[in-house]
Structures are given as C-alpha cells and as structure tokens.
Amino acid sequence: MDLKKEFLKYFQYWPWFLLSLIVFMGAAxxxxxxxxxxxxxxxxIFIDKKQEDETKIIRISTDKKSGEENLxxxxxxxxxxxxxxxxxxxxxxxxxxxxxxxxxxxxxxxxVPFVLTPxxxxxxxxxxxxxxxxxxxxxxxxxxxTEKTYTAKGYDGxxxxxxxxxxxxxxxxxxxxxxxxxxxxxxxxxxxxxxxxKSLKSALMVMADENAKGVIELKHTGSSPDRSRKILSxxxxxxxxxxxxxKQKVFRNTVSYLxxxxxxxxxxxxxxxxxxxxxxxxxxxxxMENYITEKTADRSQKKESSMLNERQISLASFAxxxxxxxxxxxxLGTDYNLESPxxxxxxxxxNTKLMDSQLILQRASSNNPAYITLMTQLKxxxxxxxxxxxxxxxxxxxxxxxxxxxxxxxEAKVKSIPTKDKVLGNINSxxxxxxxxxxxxxxxxxEAVLNGAILESNLKTLNAPETNYSAIFPQPxxxxxxxxxxxxxLPFGVTYMRLFLDTKIHNEEDVxxxxxxxxxxxxxxxxxxxxxxxxxATSRSLIAEASRALVxxxxxxxxxxxxxxxxxxxxxxxxxxxxxxxxxxxxxITVSNLxxxxxxxxxxxxxxxxxxxxxxxxxxxGLSDFLANKDDDWKKFLQKDDKFSKNLDVLxxxxxxxxxxxxxxxxxxxxxxxxxxxxxxxxxxxxxxxxIVSDTLNFSYLADVTVFVVKYDYTDKSNLVHAGxxxxxxxxxxxxxxxxxxxxxxxxGYGYGVSYGYHYQEAKVKKPWYKRSLTVKEA
Length: 779
Prior knowledge:
Blueprint: H1 3-11, H2 14-34, E1 38-47, H3 72-78, H4 81-91, E2 95-101, E3 104-108, E4 114-118, E5 128-134, E6 138-143, E7 148-153, E8 166-170, H5 172-175, E9 185-190, H6 193-203, E10 204-208, E11 215-222, H7 225-243, H8 252-282, H9 288-325, H10 341-363, H11 369-415, H12 417-453, E12 459-473, H13 476-501, H14 508-514, E13 520-525, H15 542-557, E14 567-573, H16 580-592, E15 598-602, H17 610-614, H18 623-628, E16 639-640, E17 648-651, H19 660-664, H20 667-679, E18 682-686, H21 695-699, E19 705-711, H22 717-728, E20 735-742
Parallel strand pairs: 13-20, 14-18, 14-19, 15-17, 15-18, 19-20
Antiparallel strand pairs: 1-11, 1-12, 2-3, 2-9, 4-8, 5-6, 5-9, 6-7, 10-11, 16-17
C-alpha cells in the first residue's frame, strides 16, 4: 500500500476535516461550559470493633460481637430513612441555591445574600422554584412556571408574603452592603423533605471495603463539591453520635500522674538549661556554629598575616643588602615591594639627587665643589636609608614574633573546638532528651484527654471528605477527545464512502484496473485560459511540456514503416467533454514545431470544436463540404495556420451535415487520408466519441495510433469498460491512453505539484489578486 497516496486521497479534503473538528470540538466545549459538572466526593471511616490497640494510654473496652468484621448493621444504619432525615434537616437540604450566569441557571452557589425561613412544615413544602433578585426596596421573587411575581419589602423578613411558603431576609453579611448584590440574580429550588431524602439517597453510596476489614467508604455525587463534603461530614458526625452512648469518663488519675511527671521534667529541663547557659558564658560562646566559624577564620587570618610579614622581612633583607653593595654613583632600586612608604620615598629622593649629581658632572669635573657637596649629601642620605631600612627590618622581626604567638593561640583555640563541641553536644543531648520526654508527656496528656472525650467511640475517620475535581460528568478531557475523534472520523467516513462510491478516473491505477496492458501515454494538466494556447516551440508552460512528453510517447507506440508515407494519429474518447479536441490541437502544434508537416482534421462532424482554438467561424468550409461533393479538391478547404506554426494545415469539420455517418463512410475520406499521407508527415484526426456514435469506429482502421482521451475526475470507469470492449474486438487498434485535465494541486497519485516541468511554472510572475480576473476553466 502506498501510504503517501492514501494520505493524499484524504488530505485534499482537509477543509472539511478542519470544519468538522471546529464544529464538534466547539459543540463539546459549549456543552462542557453549559452543563454543570458532576463531581464525586468521598470519605473513608474505620469501625474498630475489637479495640486491641495496647499502645494507647487509655484502653476503651466495648462489647464484642462475633469475630467477623460485619459492617452490614452500620451500612444499614447510614442508609436508613431516619438517619438521613437528620442529615436533611441539619443541612437544610430542602433548599438548593443557584446563581443565574448568562443562560445557565444551575450554577450552584454555597453562600447567598439571603436567608429563607420556612413558614410551613418542611414535609409539606411544595416542589417549586423561584428566581430571586435583590433591589433597593427588598426582594423580587418570580415563579418561572407561572411567571407570577412576588415582592417582599424590606430586608428584615418580618412579614410573610402571601403565596410564599417562606420568609426571606438579608443575611448579616449582606446587610452591610445590600447594593453589592443588586446586579445578581439567584434561583432557589424548594423540595419537600421526602423528595430531598430521595435525592440524597440516590446520590449517596455506602460500601464496605473488601480488602480492609472494618473500613466503610462513603461517596456522594453532586454539582456542588462543598455541599457534598458537608453532607459526608454530617453523616460521619451523626454516625459517631449514634455509636457513642454518652458514656465518657475522665481519666483523672492518669491526667494527675502526667501533670506530676510534666512538672518534674520541667524542673530537670530548667536545670540543664542553666548548666548550658553557664558553660557558654564561661567559654565566650554565643552560638557554637558561629564560634567555630569565628575561630577558624581568626586562625586563617593570623596565618596569612604572619606569611605576609615574613615576606616583607625577606624583601627588606634583600633591599638592605642590595643597597649596601651598591656603588656611590649607582642608582638604588625602587621595586622592592616594601610596605614602608618612608623607605620608598627616601629611595626616590636619593635617585633624584643622584641624577642631579650626574648633570653637574657633565658640565664640570669631579673636583667641582658643588659636585663634592652633593656626593657628600648622597653618602649621608644613603646611610639614612640603610639605617631606616634596618629599623624597618627590626620592626618586622618583632612583629613576626608577635604574630607567631597569636597564631599559636588561635591554633590552640581551634584545636579545643572538638572538645568544647563534645561537651556542649552532651549538654544539648541531655537537654533534648528531657525536652522530648517533656513534649511526649504533654502529647500523652492530650491523648488521654481526647481518649477520655471519645471513650466509647470506635469510629475513626481515615480519609476526611474530599472531592475529586476531575468531573465524572461531563469529563472535559474525554469529551474533547471524543469530539476530536468524532470530528475526524465523521469526515473520514464520509470521504471514505465518497471515494468508495466514486467511479471517476483519478489516476493511472484507476485506468489500469479496468483496461489492462494499455500504455498510458501522458497526462495533460488542467490549465487556465491564459495558458491554454501557450504552446510555441520555445514555450516552457505546463501544456507545452506535457504535449512534448505526449508526442514522445506516441512516437514509441508508432509502428515502423518501410515507406515514407505520413502517420495517422486518431484522437477519440468515450463521451463528449473529455478534451480530445484540446489534446489533438496541442499534439498537432507540438509536432509541427518539430519541423514536421502536419495536417489536423476535424472529423467530429456532429460537434466540432477545433474552430474555437483557431478563432474561426463555426460554419467555415471543411471536411463535410468535401465529402458531400466528390468533384471538389479537399486541399482548397485547408486553412493555413500562421499563429502557432507554419508547418500546420487545418481541415475543419465544416457545416454540420444531416447524415454524418454516411458521409464519413464513403470512399472520399479514405482517399483523402491516403493522399494526405504522401504530403504530410503526420495526419491528426479529431474524431467523435466512440460511446455516443459509431462514426469513429467506421474509419478507425486508417489510424496508425489511436489516442484514447479520458478526463481526470470526469470520465466514469464504466466508460472505460466499453472502450476496453472496442479494443478487444480490435475496433480500435494500437491504443494508448491520455489522462486530460489533471489538477496538479489536488490530484493524488501523480506527484507533480508545482514542480511539474522542471519548475518552469514557478518562473512566471505572480499577478496580484485584483488582476486575476480570469477564472480557471477546465480544458
């Protein structure tokens, strides 16, 4: 299977797929937004009938039933009418509140700005709905069924409104700012207690967990998760009250003992904290981590300072020796990297004065008094530098001793850290143990109090009521995925049925399935009116390239001849409109542009089409005139083509005769063909469709090659069956098939696209949309 071809079959209908996806996914999205989602809330409780937990401070003894963990009694109790009636009354489930949002009137709200107080028994409440709106004067209530409106003046609800089974007043919160709710509309559904109970039972599901003994799972489905959780919580509370038989005992002795132990451990804890405080003060420790960081950093700093000082000693010693060894006229170095500004400045001054002495020596002799004086000063100054440098070196040596001492002290403190940390860790460990024991005693005390408060309750809430906010209906992901799949499958199914029922010709395979062993000579593309006649010798249009390929393939089908007579190519089709005249016209032009003498004859006397391509009148004289009069010379009816090719002559069909079958079968036509063979290289015949009339079959034996034209998305496969019968009976000989009118953009199975003809089509200049006045017309 050619997957690409199968894909292209359906891809050409992508707008329908896209439209279907938009419609179905849009409908699903609107449905999800309009329909209130239904959520499932659940809770899990544990009924411990054995009470064998020995680890608790207080053990609760209860009567033991059979060894089996049978929860049928508890489930029967929860689902009983009496039990659920209490839930309905406690939660006021006779009233359902909704907020009107756009066209959706079932958006459940948990808090409304008003309070409804029944004026009749809850059991006798009517099943009715009211739309409620808060305004400046009070409340406006409307019955949607009867469209009757009630007005309740004021916000206090002191007076009952005739016809209403309740009083209405603003809630305490809403009374602070009533105008805030003026634009909101609400809806309340009122049901009697019986219906509320029935609704609750239908939405509630109670089951025992088969895998865990003593576990009951409660589930409630509804559009309001908060309401569902309240219902489950109320059921748990009521069940707990039913199980508890109001026998609670306070464990005074246990609590008293725990209080004594808590007091004793509190004193021990305070004592250890005092020891810790004293130890930290004695060792000058604030926080141990900070102390470690500080002492480690101090040691590093002292070590670094000592290293820098030793480096200066080395540099100063080197400088001192270098200066001592320098001659009286030699400049002193200034790059010793000494951290003594005085020494550095003295070196600079010395070198400056030495430069002055060199200048004097250049102008005078060494006996010059000024030079002698300056040299004396330099000697003194050099000695001062040596003395100063020696003093600086002495200072560095003293500093080095001090640094070594401080470094030793810092090192000792760092080495003492593990010992101090160990001592402090022992204190903290002892303190933590006391604190943990103290906290554990407090916890045990609280457990004792709580256990005493629920002494005989063997109900435990394993999972508090919680809501799975993944709606069980409608499920957005499932709905959208379903809409997406349906949006794809529907057009796919329609397209599949359409393609399955489609009997038109679309590609070579469609032809070869019906007519086997018949060569496909070529494919003629569907072109616009502008490109229709663009078939010159130098043209690179789609039609020109396709015609050249067709001519080349026909030449291979042409039988070899020993004589030099011209060849006859017959163009025909099954029915009218398949483009045989169009193909014959372009075949004639293409061959004539190859410097071949070509005669194009319009043999379709019933519905001639060639005159349209040459812009001549339909009634121009031609073949029918010659066939009707044997004395006429057929050459005088020829039309010389000057527009397309100088080598092309055309013999049009002429006036439509009343008896075309009789005319075409007389000997004049065969004589014409035989004479034309001696004059022209090619005679191309544009004949009538073979399935409509038998005209073509009467002279088809004259053709060397029969070109059978079928049209893309037009010719029915059943027409090919008839053509195949003609070929089997040899009524059509040496047949090749041409597929005409191929839409290069939508055709599957060809693979042309815009690259047909070596991209020649892409070289055309694209016109702006406002200049594209010519519509695409099928050839």
